[in-house]
Amino acid sequence: MTSRRRLLMVAFHFPPHAGSSGIQRSLRFAQQLPEHGWDVEVLTVTPDAYESRRADLLAELPADLRIHRALALDAKRQLSIAGRYPGFLARPDRWRSWYWPAVLKGRRLLATGRFDAIWSTFPIATAHRIGATLARGKRPWIADLRDPMAHDGYPRDPATWRAYHAVERKVFARAARVVTVTPGCADYYAARYPEAAARIRVIRNAHDENAFAAIEARGARTPLEPGVFTLLHSGLIYPWERDPGALFNGIGLLRQRQPELADKLQLRLRAPGDSGWLEALARQHGIEQQVRILPALPFAEAVEEMYRADALLLLQAANCNLQIPAKLYEYARCARPVLALTDPAGDTWREAATLDGARCADITDAEAIAATLAGMIGRGREADRQVPDRAGFSDRTALLARLLDETLA
Fold first, then answer.
1. What fold is seen in the domain 5-206+391-408?
2. Can you name the residues that pair with 38 across neighbouring β-strands?
3. Which CATH number applies to 215-379?
4. Global confidence as pTM
């Protein structure tokens, strides 16, 4: 019988963090890897580092999971004076201060000799800086890229781009394996770093089947507001990567041309982030009565809201064409119609188009969005869709365990 192995996970996104669906990836891997012979300990940040926190997912942590928290300060909130702070304190990210406390704590952990491998995950680039430094101790390092790092046009700030690129070069020079979440991202990096192409693997995002099955068993399918067509976006909205400008414009066009349909529409934005900006954008397009901005919910309640919506909205701009939001897999599991506003050339469009009954429209094309919305509202509440994958993260965790075994072999 193969002896058990132990993984040190370096992850910024971990309970009690709130605000990113990316937390599901690190959380579910930590939960499920022990089923495949890999015990896990997590190296993460102190809770004060998180801008938003929630306690509900803490209850899902295994009782025997060891979590090591290293001091990290958010430059924007904790190191600024009158809202301003030197740019170098936030390169490659706002939690740069996490590096040395985590490295010192990680070295003490590795000195115990109980770890066989190190895994770190981006989009907080400091996590990979920590992983790269700890990996010098001759343990294999697996670098997880939930998003691409320094690609064309991102990050927009040149100094931040250079900082990301420096971390990226370390990843492809030192990591025993590099994991991406989309084939497009894997191909991009294989072309950019041909010497590392054989070390790149794809492990897609997924949903947590236990949470969805429990809600499904309760039969939570009643419409959120009978007689109203509710289009729900659950999660953060960004001005650049998930720009809703053309969507709001499209709803405004619908109000002008087909007010009888627009009156039936309610756009729910659940925990979108900057509510002031979104409220001003809604006023600009004269659609205040169509837009509701709502606070965050515990994860189980947020999933139930997805089940009860008439349709689920996804936003993904062209500068994220090598990414697929984790939210898409949660939407697909809810079996509700999905409206994907994205770029036709991107991985998100290709993935969404495979879903039963999904509608895709160019995120920058207000006319196409208005026409697509008119068709969806006119059809009213549709039947549930076919669920493409009910295994969720259990399959992805099995893939990661095999990758870890392969790396050690």
1. Rossmann fold (3.40.50)
2. 5
3. 3.40.50.2000
4. 0.92
Q: 140: closest CA among 5, 22, 3, 34?
A: 5
Contact 8, 106 (CB under 8 A): yes
Give me the amino acid identity at 192. Answer: R
Instruction: Give the dihedral of Cα atoms 288, 292, 295, 300; nearest 10 deg.
Output: -170
Range(s) of the chain covered by CATH 3.40.50.2000: 5-206+391-408, 215-379
Tokens representing residue 377 in the block:
């509202």
What's the first-to-final CA gap in the chain, in angstroms?
Answer: 16
Per-residue pLDDT 10s for the chain (409 aa) are: 358 999 999 999 999 998 777 799 999 999 999 999 999 999 999 999 999 898 999 999 999 999 999 999 999 999 999 889 999 999 999 999 999 999 999 999 999 999 999 999 999 999 999 999 999 978 999 999 999 999 888 888 999 999 999 999 999 999 999 999 999 999 999 999 999 999 999 999 999 998 888 888 887 789 999 999 999 999 999 898 999 999 999 999 999 999 999 999 999 999 999 999 999 999 999 999 999 999 999 988 999 999 999 999 999 999 999 999 999 999 999 999 999 999 999 999 999 999 998 999 999 999 999 999 999 999 999 999 999 988 899 999 999 999 999 999 8
d(CA 176, CA 100): 23
Q: Which long-range contacts (CB under 8 A, 24 or more apart) does 279-288 make?
A: 281/244, 281/245, 281/248, 282/248, 284/248, 285/248, 285/249, 285/251, 285/252, 286/252, 286/255, 287/248, 287/251, 287/252, 287/255, 287/262
Q: Please confirm whether the linkage preceding 92 is cis (ω < 30° from 0).
A: yes
